[in-house]
Write the structure tokens for this entry.
Amino acid sequence: MRISELVQRSGVPLATVKYYIREGLLMPGETTSATQARYSEAHVRRLNLIRALTDVAGLPLQKAGIVIGLIDHPQPNLFDTLGKAVAALPPYADAGEADAPDYPRAKAALEKLGQVYDPQYAAVAQLERALAAAASVGMAISDERLLGYGEQIMRITEFDIDAVPTDTVHDAIEHSVLGTALYEPIILAMRRLAHQDLAARRFGGG
Amino acid sequence: MRISELVQRSGVPLATVKYYIREGLLMPGETTSATQARYSEAHVRRLNLIRALTDVAGLPLQKAGIVIGLIDHPQPNLFDTLGKAVAALPPYADAGEADAPDYPRAKAALEKLGQVYDPQYAAVAQLERALAAAASVGMAISDERLLGYGEQIMRITEFDIDAVPTDTVHDAIEHSVLGTALYEPIILAMRRLAHQDLAARRFGGG
């Protein structure tokens, strides 16, 4: 298809499409003349992906580029690739925290949950900040709630891992990286709606 | 305490503290002379709250102001107040979607889950966008996964609702609003760590 049709199909403005190509987020079209190029379904899908990562998952464009780079050029193993992709997802730790030697709240929580504590994981710093923020306003998580959350979250994660296709490494990586980024907004929206559902039944209203 | 101590205790720079007071996010200190004011623990706590909402939950300052306004001046009932607070949390729907008449994906999902569908809920639009984004990159959620998620999320939500203090309406609202905003980053970080834990066991690495 021509670039005008790509713009129409994707809903992404022409200037933005050209910008994504210049920045390496979108692959160039196949040149058909000095002034024209041909685009394919792969371009539509890539534009959907950029939009999903930036608009819905809330990544800044530069971080979306990192995630797309990991899908296009995965690390040798799934585990390393996923770790790097998670580090590109919000919320972002402040630069000042990068050399923090230890994450005491996250460490204690993971010990209670029986999970490995590895301060290299980006999500450990994210958990530390989230636990500290809740505690700083007098809402520290109780052990009972932590363990209750942990049990349900591990079940959710089992669904996620079972859904990962194992045909090719590329498919597995693409699915895992996108599943982490794109299913988070689904889970948050579902929790908010579950809150409203339960609150309506218990406290009236609605 | 004097403002210099408030700056030191909270870690928030002086210019930022003054800005928050001007914008109405932080209550002014008690005036003790023409040039001095006295601040209390309530000011430290409020600064922690602003930081938790903006840095950790990722709200822009203007949206954090809406949430704080709802805590300071709640609506007559908890249900309405929570609904307004949820609308102030990311991800934000585009302006163009505000008048969307219907949310077909969210509606179908909520029917399957046996939950009320009310297009007025901000989280319905959020769910619609999240489901559409996953589908747009070929990762539409399966019914099995939706129902599996739904069951675990409803259990998480029961922990949340049981934790709401019922002493005063103010406490209940503050806890509910902050619990929605501040426990989301905890849940996401826990899911990412659960992924790494399971992936390490199934796919090696780490």
Observations:
- Chain B touches chain A through 88 residues (CB under 8 Å).
- The longest strand of chain B covers residues 30-31.
- The mean pLDDT of chain B is 87.
